[in-house]
Amino acid sequence: MVRLFQHRAGHYLLLVAVSAALFLPNLGGPSLWDIDEPNNSACAREMLDADNWVVPTFNYVLRVDKPALLYWLQILAYQTFGVGEFAARLPSALAALLTVLLTYEFGRRLFDAATGLLGGLVLASATLFCAAAHFANPDALLNLCTVLNFFAFWQAFSRRQGAWFLLGGVAAGAGMLAKGPVAVVLPLGVSLLFLAWSRQLRVLLSRHVLGAILLGTLVVAPWYAWVGVETKAEFLRGFFLRHNLGRYAEAMEGHAGGPYYYLLVLLVGLAPWSAFLGLAAWYAAGRRGRADADLPLRGEGLPPAYRFLWCWVAVYLLFFSLGRTKLPNYVVPTYAPLALLIGRYLERWRRGDVAPMRGFVLVGLGNFALVGVLMAVGLMVVGGAVEVPWLRGQRLPGLEAWAVLGILPVAGAFGAWWWTRAEKRTHALGVLGVAAVVFLGTLAGWGVAAVDAFKAPRPLVEAVRREQDAPEIRVACYRYFQPSLVFYAHRQVWQLDSDEQVVELLRYPMEVYVFLPSAEWEGLRERVTTPWRAVARHRDLYRNCEVVVVTNR
C-alpha cells in the first residue's frame, strides 16, 4: 500500500479519495439527528432568513449554546446548495477531510511520510471521527482548528521558526469561534506540559508568541464584542457561565459518566483501529519509544515526537474526565494523535523495526475481527432477530439485514493474518485498510440512513405541508418536542404546557397543527368541541411512542 504512493501528491490523492468515500456519500440523505443537528441547522437558517450574522437564535429565541463559526459556514452552504441536510452537514465533512490531510502532514514532520499516510488513513476510517464528519455540529471544526494549532506549534518548536506561532494564534481564535474556550485553554495546557517536560519553556519567550495572542484576539474579539452588545451581554453570560463553566461543574442534560468513560469512548471511537491501540501505546513509551531511531528530531529520554503526542492525549483525557458533563464528542481532538501513534506502530511493524510476539499480533487481528462480530450482533439485536429482554420491545425491524457487513472486518483480519504469515506486511496493512474503509463507508453512507425510517419529525412535517391550505399557519407541540420540528417546519413551533392550551389552540381561527403523543391525544380528544382531524401518525425513534398531528382544518 505504502510503496504505491511514494510522493506527497499520491498520498494526497489517496487520502482525499478515501475521505470522500467515507464522508460524502448520501451525506444529505438521513433527516437531522435530534437534538444537536437541528439546533445548529435551524439556528443558521434563522440567521440567514433574518440576514443577521451576529445574533444566533433557535425557534426565534436567543441561542447561547455555541459561537457563530459553524452557523456562518452553514449559511454559506445554504446559499450555495439550498437549505437542507446536505448543506447543513457539508462544513463538518470538509473540516474532517482537511483534518485528515493536516494529520498526514503532521505525521510527516513528526516521523516520516509513510507514518503520516497510515495515520491519516487510520483517522479517516475511525468510527467516531467519521461520525463527526457526518454531523452538523462544531466538533469537526474545533478538531480542525486544534490540529492546525498543534501543527503550527510543532513547526515553531522543531524548526525554531517562531513565525509559525502566528498561524497557531489564528487557529486558536478560529477554534474559539467554533466551540469556545477549550480551543485555547487545552492547547495551552498541552504546550506548557510538553515544553516543561522537554525543559524548553524558553521557547515561549519568542516575540511571535505575543503576535499570536494579538492575532487570535483580532479573530475572536469582534464577534464576541458585537454579540455581547446586541444581546446586552445575555449571550456572553449564558455561553461562558452556563454552557462552559456550568457544564464542567455539573452534569447537564443527564450526560454523566464514570472515570473510565473516555477510555471506553476511545475504544469505540477509534474502532476498528483501536484493535492495535494497546500495541501502539506499548511501542510509543519507555525504552521501546526511545528505540525508534528514524526520527527527524531526537533528544534525551523519550523522543520529542512521542512526548508531544502523549502530552496531547493526556491533557485532553484528564481535563474531560474531571468534568461532570461527559459526551463522546468531547475527546474527538485526541483521535489525531492516537491515529498517528497507531500509524507509527503499524509502519514500524511493516518494516520489521518492531517484532511483537506472534500471539500479540494475533490478538490485535482478532480484535479487528471482533469489531465486525460485535456490530453484527448489535444490529441483529436491535433489528429483532435476536431477543433481548432488557430492550423492552424497542426494535428497529430491517436493521438486522445490515449485520452482513460484519463479515468485512472478519475477512480483513483473516486476509491480514494470511499475508503476515507470508511475511508480506504491506499487503496485510492494505487488506486491513480496504476492509475498514468499505465497512465504515457503507455503514456511514447507507446503513445509518436505514434508521431514518423510524424518525418522526420530517415525515410528519411533510404530511402537514401536503395538507396545508393557508400560507400562514400555527404549529405547536404538546408533551412532545424535537428541535428538528423547527428546522423542517421552517417556522416557530409553540410549546404548549397544558391540556387546556391544546383545546384552546384548536379553537383558533387560523389553521393550526399540533404534534403530540397519540396516547395524550386519546386522553383529551373528547374535550375538543370544534372540528378536528388527525393528519398523520408516525412512530418516534427518540421517545419510543406514536406521535400524531392534529389539525382544526
Structural class category: alpha/beta
- Mean pLDDT, rounded to whole units? 92
Whole-Å distance between the termini?
Answer: 64 Å
Uncertain stretches: none
Helical content (DSSP H or I, runs of 4+): 55-70%
Oligomer: single chain
User: What count of helical segments does DSSP give?
Assistant: 23
Largest sheet, in brief, is: 5 strands, mixed
Which overall shape is indicated by the principal axes computed on the Cα atoms?
globular
Beta-strand level of the residues, as a percent range? 5-15%
- H and E order: HHEEHHHHHHHHHHHHHHHHHHEHEHEHEE
Q: Can you characterise this structure?
A:
The chain has helices at 8-23, 36-49, 69-81, 85-110, 113-124, 127-133, 139-159, 164-178, 182-198, 207-230, 234-249, 261-269, 277-282, 286-290, 304-322, 335-351, 358-383, 407-421, 425-447, 457-467, 483-489, 499-505, 518-524; strands at residues 57-58, 61-62, 474-478, 493-496, 512-517, 533-540, 545-551. The chain has 553 residues and is α/β, with parallel strands linked by helices. The chain is globular. The relative contact order is 0.10. The model has no long low-confidence stretch (mean pLDDT 92).
